[in-house]
């Protein structure tokens, strides 16, 4: 690693620790516009992981693939239903959730739900799996498609996470190349056309078919390479990437990465306001909703 690269990475950590925003309009976040919006009512002793929103419905996932559906209201949330996903398994960390574009059948309340396995353990011999599920407010969930990256080149470590870019109809993989805190670790983004349900029950993706495949640090060294990665979401061509576990060693930070320009736009440190583990995030109206361990649902206004 060159002196310049090391200097830039140190600068990124310093900027994040100071809570600064790089190359963006100034927004002052305080207790008035970063607030605990609602508690989570999940299953005991299973950490909160992925989360996504459709309309006024929020789907909260927990480790092993436990789903809780809530209705968002102006003053909080109402729990509607709790159930194990069809992909429920000890090797399903359910780290990221995204609603897609297709519905399994006309009249379904929800589009298909994409769930990132993202576990050190293999799921039936497989890693880097994205589960595609049909869920509803009353019926049993169905696993309708399984998407697998054939990572023969060892591009990713154990934590490959999948998110949907709705505008461009893309499936984006993001994750570490070794381990979160390992020497030499980097953070990679790989992009594919979003597989259609008609492509079958099992879809294999090859790096040779990727539309984009790069390490963030090769393009912008301000994105720290050694940190605890969490979930992500894509909004208007930007990927919102929460990291950290809510400690001073690994603070709760939100990065905003411009996917088109391939550059870091924002580094926002929320450790003082939310000293808890960020997990996954999703836009809701003009705000950003953050799924956490320890603070329930946190609402950021306006959208960073």
Structure in a nutshell:
This protein is mainly beta and 304 residues long. The protein is built from two helices and 21 strands. It has one domain (3-300): Tachylectin-2, Chain A, CATH 2.115.10.
Count of DSSP strands: 21
Q: For the largest beta sheet, what order do the strands appear in spatially?
A: 6-7-8-9-13
Q: What series of H and E elements makes up the topology?
A: HEEEEEEEEEEEEEEHEEEEEEE
Overall CATH class: Mainly Beta
Instruction: Please identify the structural class as seen in this structure.
Output: mainly beta
How would you explain this protein's 3D organization?
The protein has 304 residues and is mainly beta. It has 2 helices and 21 strands. It has helices spanning 3-18, 216-219, and strands at residues 34-38, 48-54, 57-62, 66-73, 76-84, 97-99, 113-116, 129-134, 142-149, 160-165, 170-176, 187-193, 202-205, 212-215, 233-235, 238-243, 253-258, 263-269, 277-284, 287-293, 297-300. It has a 5-stranded mixed β-sheet with strand order 6-7-8-9-13, with no helix packed on it. A 4-stranded antiparallel β-sheet has the order 1-21-20-19, with no helix packed on it.
């Amino acid at each position: 690693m060159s002196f310049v690269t090391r200097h830039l990475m140190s600068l990124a950590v310093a900027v994040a620790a100071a809570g600064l925003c790089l190359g963006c309009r100034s927004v002052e976040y305080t207790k008035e516009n970063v607030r605990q919006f609602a508690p989570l009512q999940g299953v005991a002793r299973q950490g909160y992981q992925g989360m996504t929103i459709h309309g006024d419905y929020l789907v909260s996932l927990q480790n092993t693939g436990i789903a809780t559906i809530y209705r968002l209201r102006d003053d909080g949330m109402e729990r509607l239903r709790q159930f194990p996903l069809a992909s429920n398994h000890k090797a399903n960390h359910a780290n990221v959730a995204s609603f897609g574009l297709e519905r399994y059948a006309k009249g379904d309340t929800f589009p298909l739900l994409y769930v990132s396995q993202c576990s050190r353990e293999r799921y039936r011999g497989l890693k880097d799996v994205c589960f595609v599920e049909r869920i509803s407010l009353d019926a049993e969930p169905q696993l309708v498609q399984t998407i697998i990256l054939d990572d023969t080149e060892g591009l990713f470590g154990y934590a490959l996470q999948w998110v949907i870019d709705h505008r461009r109809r893309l499936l984006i993989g993001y994750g570490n190349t070794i381990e979160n805190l390992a020497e030499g670790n980097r953070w990679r983004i790989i992009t594919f056309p979003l597989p259609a349900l008609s492509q079958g029950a099992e879809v294999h993706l090859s790096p040779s078919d990727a539309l984009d495949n790069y390490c963030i640090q090769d393009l912008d060294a301000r994105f720290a390479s050694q940190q605890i990665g969490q979930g992500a979401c894509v909004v208007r061509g930007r990927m919102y990437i929460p990291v950290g576990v809510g400690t001073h060693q690994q603070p709760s930070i939100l990065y905003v990465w411009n996917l088109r320009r391939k550059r870091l736009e924002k580094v926002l440190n929320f450790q003082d306001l939310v000293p808890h583990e960020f997990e996954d995030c999703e836009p809701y109206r003009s705000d950003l909703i953050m799924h956490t361990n320890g603070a329930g649902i946190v609402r950021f206004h306006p959208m960073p």
